[in-house]
Amino acid sequence: MAKRWKLTVTSDASQLSEIGRFVHEIGLSLGLDPDSLFDVELACEEACANVIEHAYHAKRGIFSVSCCA
Questions:
Q1: CB 18 within 8 A of CB 49
Q2: What angle do CA 4, 52, 69 make, to 5 degrees?
Q3: Most buried by CB count within 10 Å: which residue of 20, 43, 47, 69?
Q4: 32 close to 19: Cβ distance less than 8 angstroms
Q5: Mean pLDDT per 10-residue run, the chain (69 residues)?
Q6: Residue 7 Cα distances to 29, 35, 36, 57, angstroms
Q7: DSSP letters of the chain?
Q8: What's the predicted TM-score (pTM) here?
């Protein structure tokens, strides 16, 4: 059975560091090598920054980041 993780945050750029920590911990638990882990963290933070900027247009809301492996 797949393991699942989910983080729900507000649509605020200040949450990007929390998202980064969330992704980092998952990557460590899955045994990702440091270079791959960096790449995944960067991609997730960029995607979330784009969601915050373009989907919410400075309005408050919530969204979730999830992973399954």
A1: no
A2: 15
A3: 20
A4: no
A5: 95 95 97 97 96 89 95
A6: 16, 23, 21, 21
A7: ---EEEEEEES-GGGHHHHHHHHHHHHHHTT--HHHHHHHHHHHHHHHHHIIIIISTT---EEEEEEE-
A8: 0.89
